[in-house]
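Quick one, probably user error.
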């Protein structure tokens, strides 16, 4: 095995095509997910997702590895200094880990360690929040505007830093805010094309559609679903929050039911987590805008995390394909 570099490598650097199989490496990473599985020979093995601000990868640790027990005990949401060898499985980066150390609070506080580890929105969160409340102010219907303001009077701090997902799209600190603002921009651009859609109801639905995620997800380093998030899910949690705020704001019962329906149906399909299928023009509209920005969020993340030397990104489960990294040629 070659000598490990003195400087810890980022995930983007590890995945570079310039790295050769068998090359030693050291990296500072978050253990984002860890699950124990059983092989056909009944021996246990670990499937681990590790990552930093520049990306993530999965690797497998078998029961006969000297680090199997320690990694299993470490669990999810911890930072580690990990050492191993570059390797690939089915053309995907999947290193062989040979050693690791848990990083304590003192080690995390040194230099830019936390900044390297925790992915955050690439946009200015303060500017996003200012733009977000500009969209709230643009809601012309007083009852709908009061309902939205009532919700965010309680959850604004959590909303500003929450992720939009654990892994699929906008899975970063501030990702929920970024996703919602992007949807609001798309909403205002598309509304003139669809006069059947009530503009204030649709915009209110966009701003509120994912608010349950402020409760569904938790974790300071690595995001995971909370107990309440697992037991109820963000759709139900968001519905409850909107209903409470709408009643407090004395929103017209018909409008409140339509707004609740947007929350309950925005996931699009029952198998994707929707509690109902979209059955109003506004609910269909919000669901489609949500799907658009979620998928484009996956595209944007893949393009950011794929090295410029690579032609394609890794396979994206949410899109069922890898993403072509190279841009179209300029000119005619």
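Nope, works fine. Designed sequence:
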């Amino acid at each position: 095995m070659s000598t490990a570099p003195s400087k810890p490598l980022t995930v983007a650097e590890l995945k570079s095509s310039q790295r050769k199989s068998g090359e030693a490496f050291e990296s500072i990473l978050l253990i984002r997910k860890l699950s124990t599985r059983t092989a056909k020979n009944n021996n246990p093995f670990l499937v681990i997702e590790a990552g930093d601000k520049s990306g993530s990868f999965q690797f497998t640790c078998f029961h006969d590895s000297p680090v199997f027990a320690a990694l299993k005990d470490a669990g999810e949401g911890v930072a580690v200094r990990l050492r191993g060898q570059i390797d690939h499985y089915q053309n995907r980066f999947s290193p062989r880990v040979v050693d690791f150390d848990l990083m304590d609070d003192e080690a995390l506080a040194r230099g830019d360690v936390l900044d390297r580890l925790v992915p955050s929105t690439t946009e200015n969160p303060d500017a996003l929040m200012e733009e977000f409340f500009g969209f709230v102010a643009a809601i012309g219907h007083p009852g709908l505007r009061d309902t939205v303001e009532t919700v965010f009077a309680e959850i604004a701090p959590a909303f500003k830093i929450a992720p939009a997902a654990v892994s699929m799209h906008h899975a970063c600190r501030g990702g929920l805010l970024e996703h919602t603002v992007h949807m609001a921009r798309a909403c205002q651009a598309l509304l003139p094309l669809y006069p059947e859609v009530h503009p204030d109801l649709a915009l209110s639905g966009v701003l509120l559609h994912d608010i349950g995620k402020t409760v569904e997800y938790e974790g300071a380093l690595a995001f995971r679903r909370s107990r309440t998030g697992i037991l109820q899910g963000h759709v139900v949690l968001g519905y409850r929050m909107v209903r409470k705020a709408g009643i407090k704001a004395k929103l017209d019962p018909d409008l409140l039911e339509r707004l609740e329906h947007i929350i309950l149906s925005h996931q699009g399909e029952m198998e994707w987590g929707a509690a109902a299928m979209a059955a109003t023009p506004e609910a269909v509209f919000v669901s489609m805008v949500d799907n658009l920005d979620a998928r484009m969020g996956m595209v944007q993340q893949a393009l950011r995390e794929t090295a410029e030397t690579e032609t394609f990104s890794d396979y994206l489960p949410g899109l069922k394909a890898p993403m072509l990294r190279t841009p179209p040629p300029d000119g005619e």
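The chain has two domains: 11-117, 125-305.
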